[in-house]
Amino acid sequence: MEFLKNFTESFGEIPKTSVQQLVDLAKEVSLKKGEIISKIGQISNSFYIIKTGVVRSYYQDEKGKQYIRTIFTDNRATGCLSSLITEETCKLNYQCLTDCLLYEINFKEFKKQVKKDHHIAILYNRMLESIFLIMESRIHDLSVLDATERYLKLKKEISNIEELITQYHIASYLNISPVQLSRIRKEIYSK
Q1: Which of 133, 154, 155, 158 has a 20 to 30 Å separation from 164 between CA atoms?
Q2: Is 56 helix (H, G, I), strand (E, B) or coil?
Q3: How many angstroms separate the CA atoms of 62 and 142, rounded?
Q4: Same-domain check for residues 50 and 129
């Protein structure tokens, strides 16, 4: 589980004994493209760390239109955090956009370790800070950047995004139509 060691180290140095506690909680799961890991209306029990693959969080309105809120890629934690914390139902779906290799961690067991081990508590705090900063950046982008700027920022963050997921999903994440995305791409790549 060298991957989990590297994941924890991305948040700062953690003693081997603490890392081992996290490794002991983790269960490797392989999910296929399209599989749901958290669903609207259900209470989540676990969060996931992505080893490989792409996961999205999205909302679907009554007409069937989907709105992607977040795209999660390798070396990121995902899952319905609000449901985990409040023990209430999820308000978003979390779905694999590609085949994924994930580490599933039961949140209640993780929280027990947080209470026992100061280093895991620090890791949890840093993970929450990271999630907050990502969400704050996402809100900023949707509020301030135009569609072209959002697309260029996404390409900078995930350079191979177009090889990983469909244009439809990219457009939904950018909060634009696929036609608008096509126009943006044409304009950028024609220069």
Answers
A1: 133
A2: strand
A3: 23
A4: yes
